[in-house]
Amino acid sequence: MSKKSYKFEKLKDSETLSTTTYPHKHCPVCNRMVDPAEEYCSEECQDLVKKKDKKGKLRMWIMIGVAVIAMAVVLVLSLVL
Ligand SMILES: [Zn+2]
Description:
Layout: H1 2-21, E1 25-26, E2 33-34, H2 43-80
Antiparallel strand pairs: 1-2
């Protein structure tokens, strides 16, 4: 029994050692392990992030546009009424 637990502990040790000492990053898209020099695991993931960024920016501009229009409406209404 003591032998078994020792084996288990050794396995656990090597596991933590491999994850802590091996330099690596995780792909922010699919969470796969990537080289620390690389940002994403593949061009596909990079493209996905780029597309998301574009969509996020577009949404931000739409929000700003809506806010400006709302403010203009309020301003006009306060001037008219
Ligand atoms: Zn990925």
